[in-house]
Design a protein that fits this description.
By secondary structure, the protein is mainly alpha-helical. The protein is 84% helix and 0% strand. The protein contains 6 helices and no strands. Helix 2 packs parallel to helix 4.
């Protein structure tokens, strides 16, 4: 009884531990999902605000919003392309590492542009814009270059695979239509052998006649070989 109670206690402890672990994992998964949803909502709201500011506030303020929007759009598109592509192409891991380093500069630039949005001194904003514009151009061009290279690589792999598949299908189709590739020599020989000369025709005819006679004779012998199939003699016959 003591051993059975100990075993039951151990089993209950193990089940309780599994339940706790499962609950913790579920809570963490829900938390990650909520954080992801909140981050996406904030990103959408921020992008919408920048688009509105870009068109409603002319001058330096509108240009700052345009720079932030182009930076965020380029960095996000490149991040999604590389993270999706590295799952199928491990060689993109180095490109993803380079993008992470580029993202550090992108976040710093985004913070500088965001602070410049709240700057009340318009002259200072106008003075800082050339350098910020150049930094934005450098970062977005680098991000676009990584993204386009990854997309071209994936497209080239798809084209190569399609070309290989098309060649395999062409070979398989030819193998299925094997009668189209067989030579027509036997038919030509047969046609050429039957056409010339009467000797050949007569030999063939005699051969065919012999074969027919043999068949007819054999059938006649079989028919005459049984007593019930014999022709009854007339009574006057000796």
């Amino acid at each position: 009884m003591v051993a059975a109670a100990a075993i039951i206690a151990v089993i209950c402890a193990i089940l309780f531990a599994f339940a706790v672990i499962g609950t913790v994992k579920a809570v963490r998964a829900v938390k990650r999902g909520v954080d992801r949803t909140v981050a996406e909502a904030r990103r959408t709201v921020e992008d919408t605000r920048l688009k509105a500011k870009q068109y409603t506030q002319p001058g330096a303020a509108g240009e700052v919003a345009q720079l932030r929007l182009s930076l965020r759009t380029s960095m996000r598109a490149t991040q999604e392309a590389l993270r999706t592509g590295v799952v199928e192409d491990a060689s993109l891991s180095e490109s993803l590492a380079l993008f992470e380093r580029l993202s550090t500069h992108g976040r710093e630039l985004d913070e500088d542009l965001r602070r410049l949005e709240d700057e009340p001194d318009k002259a200072r904003v106008a003075a800082c814009l050339p350098s910020l514009r150049e930094r934005t151009q450098n970062i977005t061009q680098s991000a676009d270059s990584l993204r386009w290279a990854a997309q071209d690589r994936a497209r080239q792999f798809a084209d190569d695979d399609l070309a290989t598949l098309s060649e395999q299908i062409r070979m398989e189709s030819g193998a299925l239509r094997h009668w189209d590739t067989e030579p027509a020599e036997p038919a030509e020989k047969a046609a050429g052998g039957a056409a010339p000369g009467s000797a050949t025709g007569s030999a063939t005819g005699s051969g065919a006649g012999t074969e027919r006679a043999a068949i007819d004779g054999r059938n006649a012998w079989r028919q005459a070989g049984y007593s019930w199939q014999k022709t009854r003699r007339p009574e006057s016959a000796p």
